[in-house]
Amino acid sequence: MKLLLAGLVLTLIVGAQAQWYHFPGEAARGAKDMWRAYDDMKDANWKNSDKYFHARGNYDAARRGPGGRWAATVISDGREMVQGSSGRGHEDSAADQEANRWGRNGGDPNRYRPNGLPRKY
Prior knowledge:
This protein has 121 residues and is an all-alpha fold. It is built from five helices and no strands. It is elongated, with a radius of gyration of 19 Å.
């Protein structure tokens, strides 16, 4: 009985840790999602659309898995830290971070979509 229980516990531990090798690929694809959202934001050049693209980039990256979620967090926090120290307003940075968290937590990015933004985005 003890051997069976030990085998079951070992199986559960190994199974829970067996997905570690997916993390780097998820992170790379998540970073690519973040870049695509940034690139689309620059391409769209649409007034009041930056919160939408923040939420969309984080949403797409986080859907990749834990690695994508990690990449979205690191990129978003780093970007806001750099932009915050460059003299941008604290309120704007806080609003960006709220949109980042919304997307990362699975919220629909369209909550922030501005009227008239072309459907291709």
